[in-house]
Amino acid sequence: MIIDVQPNRQAATHAAARFIAHQLRIKPDSVLGLATGRTMEPVYAQLVELYRSSQLDFSRCRTFNLDEYVGLGANDRNSYRHYMDHHLFFKVNVDSKRTHVPDGLARDLDAECAKYEQLIQQSGGIDLQLLGIGNNGHIGFNEPGSTFDSRTCVKKLSLTTRQQNASHFADSGKMPDRAITTGIGTIMESRQCLLLATGADKAAIIAEALEGRLTTMVPATVLRSHPACTCIIDASAASQLRFPDGSRVSRAA
Ligand code: F6R
């Protein structure tokens, strides 16, 4: 794993956006795995800026989002489809037919998960998977205890995740308690992963994820055994690492 410590949030999010832009430039028909959440908002803003200022081309790429709340559709402002449309897809030249987010309104959720998994495989697999990290170490919505070979499935959200995300909902009681998420096995098959974490509230979990014991109770620890994972963090998120001394390469598993 390459760990890249940037001085602040802006530098870290710009570095992540440059990483994604580089992938699109070297392979314009890349299959991108995308994440949502607060951490990613400035990354998408920067990608939109690169599209406007440097003609970054999204026209040939295909995207798969990691997750979606069960029960929320595209018109719901808390759905991840809505998030992606408004932060990125409506603002760049991506073909909407090539953007995929699990259908949180699917009648048969298991069939939707199987279909999503199959679509990723049919598209040739993910070239670059962007990941945030939950306060409990989840990646996607793979909560603590998820097996490292899991596939796209429905997950019950943990209390920590519900507390982390409840503030997005005008009525926190309306936050769904389940989500569809691509599995850890699916994520680990991506040719490259990019984990981004910023802010002091991520410092403890980043220390556990990067330097703690490899365990399904901290799902992000699995990324240390990925053959091509880069972790970009800002100095605040790096503040509880034992070795927070700038860019370094760690092969620890
Ligand atoms: C969302 C996702 C989650 C978030 C994580 C961090 O699509 O996959 O794993 O990346 O919960 O969320 P923020 O950035 O809001 O702290």
Short overview:
The protein is α/β, with parallel strands linked by helices. The protein has helices at residues 9-26, 41-54, 80-87, 109-122, 159-165, 184-188, 203-211; strands spanning 2-6, 31-34, 62-65, 67-69, 99-100, 128-131, 153-156, 178-181, 192-197, 229-234, 248-249. It is globular and about 45 Å long.
Protein model, in words:
It is a single chain. By secondary structure, the protein is α/β, with parallel strands linked by helices. It has helices at residues 9-26, 41-54, 80-87, 109-122, 159-165, 184-188, 203-211, and strands at 2-6, 31-34, 62-65, 67-69, 99-100, 128-131, 153-156, 178-181, 192-197, 229-234, 248-249. The strands form 2 sheets. The chain has an 8-stranded mixed sheet, with helices on one face. It has a 3-stranded antiparallel sheet with strand order 4-8-7, with helices on one face. Helix 1 (9-26) crosses helix 2. It is globular. The termini are close together. The chain binds fructose -6-phosphate (F6R). Fructose -6-phosphate binds next to loops.
